[in-house]
Amino acid sequence: MIEVAINSMGISPMNYQRVIILKEQAGERYLPIWIGPAEADAIAVKLQSVDVPRPLSHDLLWSVISTLNASIDSIVINDLRDDTFYGRIILNAQKGQVEIDSRPSDALALAVRSGAPIFAEDTVLDKAGLLIDEETGQATPQETPERKKVSRDELKKLSAYTDFINTLDMEDFDSGFQKE
To answer: Which domains are assigned to the chain?
Structure first.
């Protein structure tokens, strides 16, 4: 697993969906993930330290976890299948460590509330990680053995993601969300 951090958020020019950009902590690859508007707002509110009058859903879940004397050990983006990313929330609970299946966007919203580290499986970064050309700001997929192993059927299933990658320009994204 590779530790990543939230680098920026923005809106995809291709389909107007929200996108969160994760970046390797000790590397050069970026991982863009589409997320819903509610999750994007929940992440942005916390990263920008905006006070809301009532708890959002992710605030409520974090409060429940804390009240039950559990803690979030880490968040893992563990798979990418058919244009869909998968995530896990690793909880430290009274009975030991528990893994909970989650959408990455919900897991990331909890990570920004708890301060938990975020990880991506090597295979996910190998399939979907991007390098950014410093001169042009354009994203390009990194050639990896994992990416070369992807079958034609898998490529078809990732076609929307690939189309999105081809339209990605990092200058379109707000990098003001850097996690300290």
So the answer is: 2-172 (3.10.690.10)
